[in-house]
Design brief:
By secondary structure, the protein is α+β, with helices and mostly antiparallel strands. It has helices at about 35-45, 115-125, 145-155, 165, 175-185, 195-210, 220, 230-245, and strands at about 5-10, 20-25, 70, 75, 95-100, 110, 115. It folds into two domains: about 5-110, Beta-grasp domain (Ubiquitin-like (UB roll)), CATH 3.10.20; about 115-245, Orthogonal Bundle (Fumarate Reductase Iron-sulfur Protein, Chain B, domain 2). The chain has eight helices and seven strands, in the order ββαβββββααααααα. InterPro entries: 2Fe-2S_ferredoxin-like_sf, 2Fe2S_fd_BS, 4Fe4S_Fe-S-bd, 4Fe4S_Fe_S_CS, Beta-grasp_dom_sf, Helical_ferredxn, SDH/FRD_Iron-Sulfur, Succ_DH/fum_Rdtase_Fe-S.
């Protein structure tokens, strides 16, 4: 395939950015989107031009570092991560725009790389359990009913990619936070800190500059892990209960 790419270039956090146009040729439909960008960067390197900065790590849909806004959609046209998106999802001759996540709480560092440290600070505020370390406890010592285990497991699939924030018109991180709160509040180990956790995480979320949820649902649509919108209901329920106590 031959493609035209319109890519956001921004030399640094305090510089102004702009869309720049690039052509790539002979792209195999079996390449991933990031492999296609690798090829473009090899071409730029060969010409002595600055390669395009973008984030990636696992390239297996696990780490959450590779998010890009592709032709206006978080992670592009398929329900997957950018690293698992293949070029067969595009057509020969297509013009594709590639931008970083757009959210005040995710400032651009360079080109397509944003600082998602705000997510780390939300986790530091409460997305953990406190346990005494030592040898592994007996697996059946704290029985968890199957429906609770399943829901905790579903919520734990969140990889912290930030697509939910990028897709939300309010740049809200409620789906991300709802996934973390739901994961821990379904399990016995998450109960001792349950109230403090949700209050502290929501405080940090607002402090970071994420917006509020107005039930648009774009977050869940964009989520590559299929985290459902009802985790936000769990978050709100836990927050109301914690504030009442
Ligand atoms: S909820 Fe989904 S879209 Fe949001 S950070 Fe987690 S995996 Fe990414
Ligand atoms: S590079 Fe790890 S999820 Fe895409």
């Amino acid at each position: 395939m031959n493609l035209t790419l319109k890519i956001w270039r921004q030399p640094g956090p305090r510089h102004q950015g702009s869309m720049q146009t690039y052509k790539v040729t002979d792209i195999s439909e079996d390449m991933s989107f990031l492999e296609m960008l690798d090829i473009l960067n090899e071409q730029l390197n060969a010409k002595g031009e600055e390669p395009i900065a973008f984030d990636s790590d696992c390239r297996e849909g696990i780490c959450g570092s590779c998010g890009l806004m592709i032709s206006g959609k978080a992670h592009g046209p398929e329900k997957t991560t950018t690293c698992q998106l293949h070029m067969r999802s595009f057509t020969d001759g297509e013009v594709i725009t590639v931008e970083p996540w757009r959210a005040n709480a995710f400032p651009v560092i360079k080109d397509l790389v944003v600082d998602r440290g705000a997510f780390d600070r939300i986790i530091q505020a409460g997305g953990y359990i406190s346990v005494n370390t030592g040898s592994a406890p007996e697996a059946n010592a704290a029985p968890v009913p199957k429906p609770h285990a399943d829901r905790a497991f579903m919520a734990a699939e969140c990889i912290g990619c930030g697509a939910c924030v990028a897709a939300c018109p309010n740049a809200s991180a409620m789906l991300f936070m709802g996934a973390k709160v739901t994961h821990l509040s379904e399990l016995p180990q998450g109960q001792p800190e349950r109230d403090a956790r949700v209050v502290s995480m929501v405080d940090q979320h607002d402090h970071e500059g994420f917006g509020g949820c107005t039930n648009v649902g774009a977050c869940s649509q964009a989520c590559p892990k299929g985290i459902p919108q009802d985790v936000i209901s769990t978050l709100n329920k836990d927050l109301r209960a914690a504030l009442r106590r």
